[in-house]
Design a protein that fits this description.
heterodimer; A: 395 residues; mainly alpha; MetI-like fold; 2 domains; two-stranded antiparallel ribbon; 19 helices; 2 strands; B: 273 residues; 76% helix
Chain lengths: 395, 273
Amino acid sequence: MFNKPRTTAILLALPLTAFILVTFVAPLGSMFMRSLYDPLVADIMPGTVAALAQWDGTGLPSEQVYALAARELERAREERTIGKLATRLNRDTSGLRSVITRTGRALKRKGGAPWSESLPTLHAAWGEPAIWQALARTGARVTPVYYLNAVDLTFDGSGAIVRQPEERRIYATLFIKTLRVSLTITLLCLIIGYPVAYLIAQAPPRQGRLLLVLVLVPFWTSLLVRTTSWIVLLQQQGVVNDLLVWLGLAPDDQRLTMIHNMTGTLVAMTYVLAPFMILPLYSVMRGIPAVQMQAAASLGASWPRAFYRVYLPQSLPGVGAGCLLVFILAIGYYITPALVGGQSGQLISNFIAYHIQTSLNWGLAAALGCVLFVAVLLLFLLYDRVLGIDRMRLG
Amino acid sequence: MTISWSSLSSGKLALWLFCGLVFLFLVTPILVIIPLSFNAEPYFTFTRGMLELDSQAYSLRWYEQVIFGEQWQRAALNSLIIGVAATALATTLGTLAALGLSSPALPWRRPLTALLISPLIVPIVISAAGMFFFYSGLNLTQTYSALILSHAALGAPFVVITVTASMAGFNRELLLAAASLGAGPVRSFFKVQLPIISPGVIAGALFAFAASLDEVVVVLFMGGIEQRTIPREMWSGIREEISPAILAAATFLILVAILLLIAVELLQKRSTE
C-alpha cells in the first residue's frame, strides 16, 4: 500500500541525508581509506614491487629485479615523484631518503647492466637486503602499518611486528595523556560548574536569567577570541603576572610561566568547556522543585544531609550529561591546545593536524583520526544509551 | 513556619563567594580584550599610560587597520560569503529534514537523527581531516565550494535540532484544518507551519552562521590564500605576529556574539509564549 505520511516524511528527510552522506560520511570514509590504503610505492615502482613478490625475502633479489628498480627509479626522477618515494621509504626505515635521492641523481650519469653489480656501486645500500625488504613491505597497497604506528608498533626487517624504536614511541603515551587531560578538565568543569548551575537554578527568575547571560556570553563568543584572551591574561608580561608582581606575590624577575605549556591548555580548555557543563546541569536542576529541600528541612534533615539525599541524586542526570559532553569535546580538542599548549600541552588532535599540514604523513594522520573517531563514537553511544541523543537541546 | 538551617547563611555566603569567582573567571577574559584593543602600543598588555588613563596611551590605530586593511577586508568578505552560502544551504536542508524527523511515520527515526546530527559530535579535527582527504581526491581543495559544502554539513545539525524542538510544540491538527479549508501542502506549509516554527528556523540559522563564522580548522586544512576568513586571519595573527589588531577584530566578534545571543534569546522567548 502507498503510505502518504510515510512517503512525505522520507522525502523531507532525504535531501539532508544525501547531503550529509556526500559531504560528511564520504569524507570520513576517505579518511578510513587513507589509513589502510597506500598505493604510493606500488604506483611509482610497479614492476619492482611485483617482482619482489616472488622474492623469498632473504639474500639479494635477482638481476631482473635490479634492472626493474633502476629503470623505475630513473623514471621517478624524470617524473619528479622520487621525492615522495624517498619520504615514504624513509618513514619505513630511517636513512632511506638519502639512499633514494642520491641513487636517483647518480643514475643520470652512471650505471648500466648488469644492474646487480652497478647499483650497489651507486649506493652501498643496494647491496644489502634491508632496502629490498623495505620496498617489498611498503609496496603493499593495503597496509596495517599506519595503525601499528598509531600504537607505537612497526614492522622489522623480516616483517615481524615489533615496538617502535625508543625515540618514535610517542602515540600510546599521547593517547593516555589526552584521556588524562580530558578527565582532569571534565572534573575541573564539574567542580566550578555544579555550584554555579545550582546557584542559577535557585536564584529568582530575573536574577537567574542575568547570571545565565554571564555563562552564555562566553559560550557564544568566538573560540579564537576566548583563547586569545588567555594569552593576554597568562603570558609572562600578561595581566595575571602584572597583578601578582604588583601585589608583591611574585618577584618581577620570576614571573610565572602559565602559557604555552600544560597549564595553559588546562586553564583555557576548562574555561572554554565550562558552559557545556553548566548548561546541561542547569537545565536538569531547574526541574528539581525547591519545596523538596524545604520538606527535607522540615523533617529535620541538616542541609548537607538534605542535599546529599534529596538534591544530588536528582541532579545526577545533569552531571552525567555535562561530564560526557565535556569529555567528548575535550578528547578531540584542537584549537585551544594548538594556540596555548606550547610543546607539553599538545593533545592527539594536534598531532593529527601536524601530520596533515607539516609532516605530510597522511596515512598516519588518518589512522590516528580513525582511532580517535572510534573512541568518540563509543562515548557517543554511551551518551545516547544514557541520555538519548534525540533529546539534545541547544541554548 | 519559616524553614531555615542555622548554618545556611555562612554556607550561602561561601556559595556566593565561590560562584562570584567562577563568574569572574567566565567574564574577565572577554572584558580584558576590549580595553587592550585600544592600546596605542603594539603589545598585548596594559601599559603604564593605559593604567593612568592617559589619553595618549589609547588609540584607534588597530581598528583602523582592521577596518581599512586589505587583508582583513578580504577576510571579512570571505567569512560573509562562506557563512551566508553555508547557512542558506544548511537551513533549507535542515528545516526540511527536521519536518521529516518530526513525523511519527518516518522509519528509522533514531539512527537517522544520530546520522544527521553527527557532524556536531565528531571532533572538528577528524571532520576536517576527512574533508581534506575527500576534496583533495577531487582536486577541490582551495575552492569556495568545498568550504561552503563543509561548513553547511557542520551547520545543518544546529538547524535540525532547533527546528525539531520547535516542532515538538506544533499542533498537527492545524495542518488538517488547513487541508480541510482547501490549502495544498505547499500552501499550508508556508502559511501555517512555517510561521509557527520560524523562531526555530531562524535560531538554527543563527547557530549555523555563528558556527561558520568561528570555524578555523577546515579553513586551515583546505582553504588557500584566496579563502582566508576572519578566524583564519586571527589564527595566523596569534601564531605568527602578535599585534593588537587581533584584539580589535576580537572585539568585533564579541559584539557579533552578543547580538547573536540576544537574537536567539528573543526567538526562544517568542517560541515559548
